[in-house]
Amino acid sequence: MSEPLSPDATVVVVGASLAGLRAAEEIRHEGHAGPVVIVGDERHAPYDRPPLSKQLLAGTWDVERIHHHAPDKLDTLGLEFRLGHRAASLDTDARSIQFDDGSSLHYDGLIVATGASARSLPGTEGMPTVRSLRTLDDCLGIRADLEAAGEGARVVVIGAGFIGSEVAATCHGLGAVVTVVEALPTPLSRVLGDQMGEACAQLHRAQGVTLRTGVGVDRLTSDQGSDTPVVVHLADGTAVDADLVVVGIGVTPSVGWLDGSGLTLDNGVVCSEHLFAADQVVAAGDVARWTHPTLGEQLRVEHWTNAAEGGAAAARNLLAGSAAAVPYSPIPFFWSDQYKTKIQVIGLPGQDDEVVVVEGSVEEGKLVALYRREDRLRAVLAFSQPRHLMAYRPLLAAGASFDEALALSRS
């Protein structure tokens, strides 16, 4: 049982992320006057991640534009930032966080918002022009490699998930010759199912991007002094030459520093429906795995809106204490911009859900598809149909039947 925080209590937010910043903002919005300290392992002030694979990578935005607030706006919140400090361990009994430089920090209330880190391909660590995309520095590194390779750069993207697909689309728009390699037979099938995953595959093919599916990567070899800096060797015995390789094979929750802390770690920090992970400890964003009160499932959601909404909800509950806390019950929403198509999803689609296209078609490049699980509407996906998509949000909030969703589509 967590007691309400006193007005002068020290709140520490570990993770200078969107979730961490939204949590700190909410603490001030709720009138908390005590110290609020945000600790982050990057040296950059909190910034937005979605533009990393799109506008910032494309060069249409500069770095200043992706920061959540100008420095003077952050100053008005009265927050203390300790950037460039990586959390090493947590002692929940002493309410103390230890950092990699040997320093420590006491807290009265703690918000864990350390997010996730990009998975790497074994054997590629430190290999030049082989990169992942998770941080601002990652993005700037990819941009530098593209500029060095020049017009017509050969780019191989490993992984056709949302990040990999966005990188592929952006690089293609910059004049690169792009090949996407995906181990699954159908891209995004685990998220959107086979039918809509194939629709996403068609977006690449329609632009002339080479999409290799159903084949894994065996190894990468590098010879930076040659005309082919990197060779991607595939499991079927073929190979693809590259000037730049971007690995987009998912992320891992950043929980290593919590080993031995007493927090339950299982694909993230396991939390209650109120986002409490321990006494006076809450978690939010990509790192939090909580019990969704409406769905009755444990979820860990890696989307922008969950980080923003979850950060604020975790902060309110930490201040209020567990007895007065409100269950966190969001309607998930995420989007992806690929080529000229905006893909948007509300709800939680599943690989085995029944999918019914109720408006448009794959061929048109505009559609709305409903996801059915048993007799309920589970999710809605849209290609470049934002207004039509949002019409279904009240139905998802109400736990509507699939028949009600079909009736709306016909109205």
Second CATH tier, the architecture of the largest domain? 3-Layer(bba) Sandwich
| Apparent shape | globular
Largest beta-sheet details: 6 strands, mixed
The poorly predicted ranges are none
Compute the number of structural domains: 3
Query: Can you identify the CATH superfamily of the largest domain?
Result: FAD/NAD(P)-binding domain
Structural class: alpha/beta
| Biggest sheet: strand arrangement | 3-2-1-7-20-19
Strand content: 25-35%
From the 3D structure, determine the CATH topology of the largest domain.
FAD/NAD(P)-binding domain
**Helicity range of the residues?**
25-40%
Overall mean pLDDT score?
A: 95
CATH class of the largest domain: Alpha Beta
Calculate the terminal CA-CA distance, rounded to whole Å: 49 Å
Number of strands: 27
How would you describe this protein?
This protein folds into 3 domains: 11-117 and 252-324, FAD/NAD(P)-binding domain (3-Layer(bba) Sandwich); 120-249, FAD/NAD(P)-binding domain, CATH 3.50.50; 340-410, Enolase-like, domain 1 (2-Layer Sandwich), CATH 3.30.390.30. It is 26% helix and 31% strand. It contains 11 helices and 27 strands. It has helices at 18-29, 55-58, 63-66, 71-76, 136-149, 162-173, 189-206, 304-320, 386-390, 393-398, 402-410, and strands at 11-14, 36-40, 80-83, 87-91, 96-99, 104-106, 109-112, 116-118, 130-132, 154-158, 177-182, 210-213, 217-222, 230-234, 239-242, 244-247, 251-253, 269-271, 276-278, 281-283, 288-292, 297-299, 333-338, 341-347, 354-361, 366-373, 376-383. It has a 6-stranded mixed beta sheet, covered by helices on one side. A 5-stranded parallel beta sheet has the order 9-16-10-11-12, covered by helices on one side. The longest helix is centred in the middle third of the chain and has 18 residues, at 189-206. The N and C termini lie far apart (49 Å).
